[in-house]
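Can you give me the bound-state structure? Components:
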Amino acid sequence: MPTPAELHQDGLALTPPMGWNSWNSFGGNISQQAIFETADAMVATGLKAAGYEYLVIDDVWHGCRSEDGFLQEDRKKFPDGMKAVADYVHSKGLKYGMYSDAGVKTCAGKPGSFGFEKQDAQQFAKWEIDFLKYDYCYAPDDWQTAIGLYNRMGGELRATGRKIVFSVCEWGVRSPWLWAAQAGGHLWRATFDVVNKWDAPQNCNKGIGILTAIDRMSGLEKFAGPGGWNDPDMLTIGLKPNDNVGIGKTCNEHEQRTQFSMWCLLAAPLMIGCDIRNMSPLSREILLNTEAIAVNQDPLGKQGVCVSRVGPMEVWKKPLTGDRLAVALLNRDEHEQPIAAAWPDLELPEGQAMKLRDLWSHKDLGQFKDSFSKSVQPHECVLLLMTP
Amino acid sequence: MPTPAELHQDGLALTPPMGWNSWNSFGGNISQQAIFETADAMVATGLKAAGYEYLVIDDVWHGCRSEDGFLQEDRKKFPDGMKAVADYVHSKGLKYGMYSDAGVKTCAGKPGSFGFEKQDAQQFAKWEIDFLKYDYCYAPDDWQTAIGLYNRMGGELRATGRKIVFSVCEWGVRSPWLWAAQAGGHLWRATFDVVNKWDAPQNCNKGIGILTAIDRMSGLEKFAGPGGWNDPDMLTIGLKPNDNVGIGKTCNEHEQRTQFSMWCLLAAPLMIGCDIRNMSPLSREILLNTEAIAVNQDPLGKQGVCVSRVGPMEVWKKPLTGDRLAVALLNRDEHEQPIAAAWPDLELPEGQAMKLRDLWSHKDLGQFKDSFSKSVQPHECVLLLMTP
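Here's the bound-state model for the whole set.
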């Protein structure tokens, strides 16, 4: 089977895409001003330097379709027009992304691209976008239609001649890992929407929790690699209770670090959801952990897997270039627990000396030969780099 | 979208299939003698009276194909031939099931049905089988092929004119809940193989644990109903450490009861895997819990869903006929925990009086109006029947 990169031949998304998306914090309350400020903040905060490059506006940017069927922006929200927004974002050295839907309407009821794929792709290319998130509301449930519609938009995007990362957002119901890369997708959602909760199951209410998103990624590792990624949805780090998907909650410090550790280990796209104009010191520290980001962006492009589970204590590993490993010790329990990474579980030869570094304390831990054990706080995830 | 029963129009599997399958305890070590004894035991132990009707032999029953391409049984294992086995099983008032594979070989390397679908369906019908488990080893990974191959065998089975329950076993990788009923399937695996472990993730080693199987069912509830069921794989209850998928482990009493409670609540097929000729009193008590079975076999055919999760404490509900509910209180923790089923989570009106019955102690608990709370042991699952 050809790899995603071989299918695309476009050099895009050779490592998991990184950026910011408007939905989690702004919802429908986006505006030209907010986007300009966010672009400024991506540079000023160092996020851009750390690798976050795509600034993506999500749903509810739309006006009505024009009489000749072209999508138009809401001029109240974007008085200078969408091209001016793209220009501003590009002027900061960032890439610009937008959102549409394969059905007749977007999830928030705006005009969908169904039947208008060619025109919409042309309009997006005219606006000079670099990323399209393509949702699946108001569209038929069956897989044949879904695959057909994603193929149609993927083809139209390609036909514009512009290099556009295509984000397939059908929520993992129709096994997109099997067909999304072929349809032109560079990332595909493996899960329903993640909300700002540690733990909410797939079928409870409207959003799933961080743990459930992690679990949904298991078993999909063989489908991910340079050019195409399983996507457990956006980061909820830094969301405030009254943000769009803040749902009145906050995740604690351990839980936020754990989301970042695990998204990095899973080679997940890193799309920030919080309002980066007003980040807390904690959000900054987490989102700008360049050692964790290096795990995510390792050019080998392997999605990490769970190699040991004892009740709520898990060990995960992600192979990296240079025979290195990233290893996560994840404590899902409500109690502090010791977790051991044993060499056989990591498929390391017995007696193999490995240098360990803690990627949150940013300290070398010394050399170990058979196993490494550490006491892990409730909901904490220790992220380690292991070098031969 | 038509329901599975509307698609099939055959009256089969209107409630989740119940029976016994040879794989978990016998593996390749099956024989005519063992099957005859198992058929006897299904009657003598009361399993048949409790609703278990399908006796299914799994892989490794095969001899070579005949010169004209028909499957033949291994005459060393089945000296009187497969038809004699079917006759014996039928003589006990049971139904008989067999196993094949959509690829060129079965998972254990025996002849697969690829390219021989018509002949194999005819041979199975000649042997008078009532159930076919159809695996997906040695077959292409892509969904188009998988769907095509299951459609092909589904059509050939139907063309024989014999009523045969079709068990689609591609392990949930290609979202079979979307297409298996249309291909003629009456149940379809939602997960990789379950082994005799409480907790092993989808990607660890070769088999998943009970908890992971439960989690994989979440979100699929809308695809299940009379005529077609999501299948989290066979019951591991009663397996011994040296059984085929016993993997050197046993699950404790709570864990075994929990598997049964949750399989019943999830409207999962109930296929016993242990050696029923030698059941322990505990295995008997669990597998013959007719009150739990009634939850599984309720004619409404709803798959239960998780309605509340607080850390490792979960509440699940399954709507039943007569405005009744089955409710499970599941403690995934290593510590005893109180778990509360609150009326709003169950979508019951405030103040609505419900009579509660514990389906493991088989005792009425009285009438409750707003919530019910109980202390639940580690890995225990309290199964309740609620009646207005």
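A couple of observations. The radius of gyration of chain B is 21 Å. Residues 305-387 of chain B form a domain with the Immunoglobulin-like fold (CATH 2.60.40.1180).
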